[in-house]
Amino acid sequence: xxxxxxxxxxxxxxxxxxxxxxxxxxxxxxxxxxxxxxxxxxxxxxxxxxxxxxxxxxxxxxxxxxxxxxxxxxxxxxxxxxxxxxxxxxxxxxxxxxxxxxxxxxxxxxxxxxxxxxxxxxxxxxxxxxxxxxxxxxxxxxxxxxxxxxxxxxxxxxxxxxxxxxxxxxxxxxxxxxxxxxxxxxxxxxxxxxxxxxxxxxxxxxxxxxxxxxxxxxxxxxxxxxxxxxxxxxxxxxxxxxxxxxxxxxxxxxxxxxxxxxxxxxxxxxxxxxxxxxxxxxxxxxxxxxx
Length: 291
Fold this sequence. Notes:
Hydrolase or metal-binding protein; globular; nine-stranded mixed sheet; Gp3-like
C-alpha cells in the first residue's frame, strides 16, 4: 500500500443539494430544495446525472426528497467523517485539518501536528476560510455492494444531524448499522440568519413506510444472512480504518474541483481562484502562525 495516500471507500457517484449552473462564463453551484445524484463525469453543462437520478426523480414526482440507502460500515465515524478544514483555493488541496483540539497543518517545513482552537479562535481561519467539512459515504441500490456515493457538506445542520443519527442507530441496533434499511431525507428550516427563507439539510431515517421495529428486525436478518455467507463486517471496518489512517489528508489532488464547489459554495472555484494569493505565500503565512 502506498504510504501517505488515504485509501477511501470507492466512489461511483456524488449526492448534492443543488446543481452547478453557468453564470457569466463561470460554473457556480446553486442551492436547491432537492437532491441531485451525479456520476463522476463532468460535461460542458456540469456534472452528468447518474442513471439512478432519473428513476428516483420519476418515482417522486420530479424532485428527489429522499434516497434509500444502506451504509458500508458499523462504525459511524467511518461512514461520516467531519473536521475543521482549510483548503488552498488555487488547488483544492487541504492545508490544515483539525478536530477542535489537534490539527495537521502544511508548512514549508512539512506537515506539523499543532493545537486546533476551532475556526472562531484561530488566526489562520480569518475570513471564514476554515469551516466544518463532512463527507458521508452511502450505498444506493444493489449493483455494487462496495461502491459508494459521497455527500459532501459544510452545513452545521447536516453535520450535527448526520453524526447524531448514525451514533443513535448504531446504539439501538446493537452495532448493526451496516445492516439497517435507511434513507437520506431532505429537511427544511427557517432561521433569523436565513431571513426566514427555508434552508435545507440532510437527515437519515429508517426507510419510508417502515417502523423502527421492522427496520431493526430486518437488520438482524440481514446480519444473520451475511454471517452465513461468510461476510466479515468487522474485517471490512478494520480495512477501512487502516485505509483512512494511511494518508495525512482524505482529499486527493484530483478532487480539487469538487472541493471548490462544495466547500466554497456560491463563491465558486473561478472566483476563489481569482482572489487567491499564491500558494507559496499562503504556506509561509501558515508557518509563521504555527511558530
